Amino acid sequence: MGRKPEDVAVRGPELHTPPRIAVFGASGRTGRELVAQALTRGYAVRALVREGRSLAERRGAVQVIVGSPLWADDVAATVERADAVVVLLGAREPSRDVFCAQATERIVEAMQEHGVGRLLCVTGAMVGEASGHRSFALERMARAARKRMPDVMADRARQEEVVRASGLEWTLVKPPRLADGARTRSFRAATDLVVGVLSSVRRSDLAAFLLDEIVAPRFVAQAVVVG
Question: What total number of domains does the chain contain?
Fold first, then answer.
């Protein structure tokens, strides 16, 4: 177990050159886009993946650690000496695995133990109870999702609670539907942005936002909607 948040002296805003980031969920579509853009910017990237085949094309450029986000030793090896941690965890359809909250607890504990302060965690616009950032139609869809997938949705809501209670320099990032494609640079990011059932953001734009937020944080200790 890590130390309690109030006992942790987290790292301040100064970053190494190049910034060193730890990525959880790097093998997914958003994770791969984030890693590609980070390497283009010259960031040093370490990623925890479950299979050795993951990120094979990035071997040499990325420090790949094969393991599980539920195992404390694997998580600690990924987090140590990082300037920032990006969490992109989530079950892939049609899987209904429930692990995000527990894995995020392990990540937070490792960050506390190693003095890593900056945490960016991507959840989703439908995660959590009623909120002003969802349109009426999207709120109905979120309620339906909680009935259809109660364990999954409760797990993601619990994940957000873990992040908020971490005592770290956290940002929760809540995109609507994710889309593929080249960067548009036309998205918005705001704590009061309202999104609906037709709202979307490209993974490439979301990745760029996350990397910008590492070097020039604007939403510390806030939940921001990107869409």
Answer: 1
